[in-house]
Specification:
mainly alpha; 4 helices; 0% strand
Length: 81
């Protein structure tokens, strides 16, 4: 498929970031922009599918988040007393 040309205006920090990545990877700025646009397409799947990488694995999380009873002593009481 032939590529078409468009013109966009970017803030300096975005352009600098794109240029740095392009130089490091030795590809064109256009290639970096195309990759980022492709990544930004509307995700397919449920919300759970899209956020699974953000969820802590069961084996890494404590069984009970309130397991440290010493930290819970006085919880909810005003400290100004």
């Amino acid at each position: 498929m032939p590529l078409r040309t468009i013109t966009v205006k970017l803030q300096d920090h975005l352009l600098a970031e794109i240029e740095a990545v392009a130089r490091a990877r030795r590809v064109s700025r256009s290639e970096i922009v195309r990759e980022r646009l492709a990544r930004a397409e509307t995700p397919v799947g449920s919300v759970w599918d899209r956020m699974q990488d953000l969820v802590i694995d069961d084996d890494r999380a404590p069984a009970d988040l309130a397991s440290n009873k010493a930290r819970l002593r006085g919880y909810g009481r005003s400290r100004s007393r």
